[in-house]
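Let us work through a complete example step by step.
Step 1: write down the sequence.
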Amino acid sequence: MRLLRVQQDLVSNPLPDVTAEVHRQLDALGLEVPQGEVAITAGSRGICNIVQITRAAGEWLRARGARPFLVPAMGSHNGATAAGQRQMLESLGITEEAMEMPIRASMDCVEVGNVATGPVWMDRHCWEADGVLVLNRIKLHTCFSGPVQSGLVKMMVVGMGKIRSAQTFHSAPTAQMKTMLLEMGQLLLDSGKIWAGLAILEDGFDQTAELHAVRPDKILTTEPRLLERHRHYFPQLPIDELNVLVVDSIGKTYSGTGMDTNVLGYRGVRDYEDLEKPNIQIIAALSLAEASGGNAIGVGLADFITQKLRRAIDEHKTFINVFTTGEMERAKIPATLAHDQELIERVAERYGSRRWLFIANTLHLGRLYASEDLREEIEAHPLCTIDPKPVELTYAEGRHQLAF
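Step 2: predict the structure and record it as tokens.
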């Protein structure tokens, strides 16, 4: 198979000095800094510069008399255990030594209030602190649409509430999640425990583009504006109608569902509205990112996978995460073939070799490969350029040799 090598000119806006911007944003809040312990939330996503951002926030708080510490805030991720969540942070480079702050990992929570689907919880270390700095990236959610999706509010609700609040949130019908998130978030803000938020926006190349410190009373009104700003950066596929999409790597380091459903145009949520585009007939996934620690949530969004990906799955971690969300379709194991070459050849045999796209993952869409029949459509795309010479799809020991 001959392929076009395509470069997408995504929005690039990297911050020149992340540490300085963290300090500048926190300075601009004008809030009194608690003269005691302040918890900083730390999640499990592959956020660019998360080590520098988190460390800078701790430095700023310490310089003003606070005693910051880190709390793993990742709901049911990494087996829903304190040891597993600490290990996840350390795998991201968020260690006590690098942060110069202690990490307090626990699944113990305090009940803050109740909503229609159950109790709302907060990590005990956060509850007992003198304040919480909620730190997270703002982005589109993979299950639902709404004014607030994945960001500061979700970090408070699902991240800080561990598996207990995650179960309460995901017990709501998918269509009601957008309102449930706001209701649960308001309860947590009313507790008086949230000192401030620090929101991260990334550009189309997964680089830190903007940081926004937000006062607690402004979080629910500011986050929708930041979500719209995120849409300005969000990378998408350049073709809306595809026969086959081959995703080189999936995993939570790229998206909460392993593959971003906003890129795929397919949420995989039964009896709920789906996205209008893109329209992809067949999705193939080749590997699971090592940084995801075996959590293969979203593997069920694919139609075909390789044995390499299947062997990398930690079934317990995947089950806990998917079971908590209740969207069991996302844990189903697709048809499995021996390796990349067999998968690609068998899919082409059954579905033809036209309208194919190869991507590294759903987060990094700057470089991709397309079947030659898509040349005219890609040339007409304002963000795309095509290398003059097509490349031949080759393999070594069954593994493709495309360079993303």
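Step 3: interpret the result. The domain at 31-233 is CATH 3.40.50.11440 (Rossmann fold).
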